[in-house]
Amino acid sequence: MSAASSLPRSTRESLDIAIDHGSPLPDQIVAGIRDLVTRGELRPGDPVPSSRRLAGHLGVSRGTIETAYAQLAVEGYLLTRERAATIVDPDLPTALLRHTDVPAPPSAPQRPPRRLIDLRPGHGGDDPLRDPAFRRAWREALDVDPGAVDPLGQPGTRWAIADHLRLLRGMSVDPRDIIVTSGSRDGLRLLFASGLDGAIGVENPGFPGLRLAMADRELLAFDVSTGLDVEGLTELEGQVAAVVVTPNHQFPHGGTMPVSTRIALLTWAARAGVVVIEDDYDSEARLQRTSVPTLFDLAGSLDLDVGVVHIGTFSTVLTTAVSTGYIVARGRLGEAMSAVRTSWGPAIAPVLQSAIAAYLESGGLRRRIARGRRRLRAAEAVVAEAGAIPGLVHEGRTLVIETDEDGAQALLRELEGRGIRVASLAAGWSGDSAVRHGIVIAHSNVEATVLRSVLGLIQTLSGEHREPTASRIEP
């Protein structure tokens, strides 16, 4: 206590040092004594309490005090003497006696709550780093020499991806047409650096992350709010060099583009000389294996003279913690991208590529996808039994709850406050189009019990934000 400075030197037993358990105790005592010296409450030549007495008064171990005193002696604040009291060094430099405002240390970034529930499309799901098959693949990768570095992707990894596409997507792909990337955005950057000039047509509504990845390009939106109308694309002829589409999970509902529309799109692109960029986002998240062929395969089977670039990522099943993806392209486009990637170097480390290859070859990823499909089936059952939720639209593999703008902001804010993250429906629209408001929920990201609780909470919150005369829906 500060009054201690008025006690006779021989009877001083304590010091005005606040103790908590937020940092190491010796560090707190060192900082406290430094502060007392700086403020003049301890002056050169003043004794400090013995380690035994100060430990007793502060409620810490004697060893803690001795560690602090030893550190202060090294720094020149204290002088220890044989068979005599420890004192503030009489020759303490005057610079240490002047009070200065010490800048506060930068605050550590806040970590998200441990029990954060992430229901945003493209996020969440179980942690791949805890998957025994994935951990085993990592160990195997560390024990195997990956060989010479191939900037396009290690040969074993490209072969494993080609086999994965054959089994999961029914695609016939030559491994030499595959370029390993660090995800969809990296794939787009690689494509644009390969000489694809001009504006890019984008879906409206569409995934916000895709537009962010193309923020440096001129983007022209085409309406897909009721499905892609290929006739409407004629307005883009002569204006765009390419169009980006997500035929297997169209925002926001997660619907699938019919095969007839896919053929019409490719036919139009061949006539207009437009490159089609197929983002195969979330293609694995289906109740059953898809029978709808990819645009890349369709273009080959129809023998159309059209450039199709197939972009895939494992982020939706392995999460963004394992940023790995791939591009499939043939002909001039493929050659141009291969040249750029060769000049840039590999997108991800060969060891990670080896781990991904081992995971694919062992069937670990297929089993993980199967677990995700079982979780989706269970989630569908929970939604069916949940009861009415105002504004709910369920037409695909995600849930959309439409509200007015204020209601959407309130839902986003209140769910975030409870550690639940969902996506904003309005973020999918671009330009000055007729934006719709609400939230988007990837309901298969969590187990059924968690989803049931979240939907009950949303029912309650939706009831609270309705007109006062409306009946409140209880969970």
CATH architecture of the largest domain: 3-Layer(aba) Sandwich
Structural class, by secondary structure, is alpha/beta
Principal-axis shape equals elongated
Mean pLDDT: 82
- Helix proportion range: 25-40%
Q: Radius of gyration, Cα only, in angstroms?
A: 31 Å
What pattern of helices and strands is seen along the backbone? HHHEEEHHEHEHEEHEHEHEHHHEEHEEEH
Structure annotation, total helices: 15
Number of strands: 15
Which sequence of strands runs across the widest sheet?
4-10-9-8-7-5-6
Distance between the termini: 55 Å
CATH topology grouping of the largest domain: Aspartate Aminotransferase, domain 2
Beta strand %: 5-15%
CATH class of the largest domain: Alpha Beta
Number of domains: 3
What would CATH call the homologous superfamily of the largest domain? Type I PLP-dependent aspartate aminotransferase-like (Major domain)
* Poorly predicted residue ranges: 1-11, 466-475
Question: Explain this structure to me?
Answer:
With 475 residues, this protein is an alpha/beta fold. The chain folds into three domains: 25-97, Winged helix-like DNA-binding domain superfamily/Winged helix DNA-binding domain (Arc Repressor Mutant, subunit A, Orthogonal Bundle); 128-365, Aspartate Aminotransferase, domain 2 (3-Layer(aba) Sandwich); 367-465, Aspartate Aminotransferase, domain 1 (Alpha-Beta Complex). The chain has 15 helices and 15 strands. Strand 8 (275-279), helix 9 (295-301) and strand 9 form a beta-alpha-beta unit. Helix 1 (25-39) crosses helix 3, helix 2 (51-58) crosses helix 3 (62-75) and helix 13 (364-385) runs parallel beside helix 15. The longest helix is centred in the C-terminal third of the chain and has 22 residues, at 364-385. The two termini are 55 Å apart. In the C-terminal section; belongs to the class-I pyridoxal-phosphate-dependent aminotransferase family. Keywords: Aminotransferase, DNA-binding, Pyridoxal phosphate, Transcription, Transcription regulation, Transferase. GO terms for molecular function: DNA binding; DNA-binding transcription factor activity; transaminase activity. Pfam families: GntR.
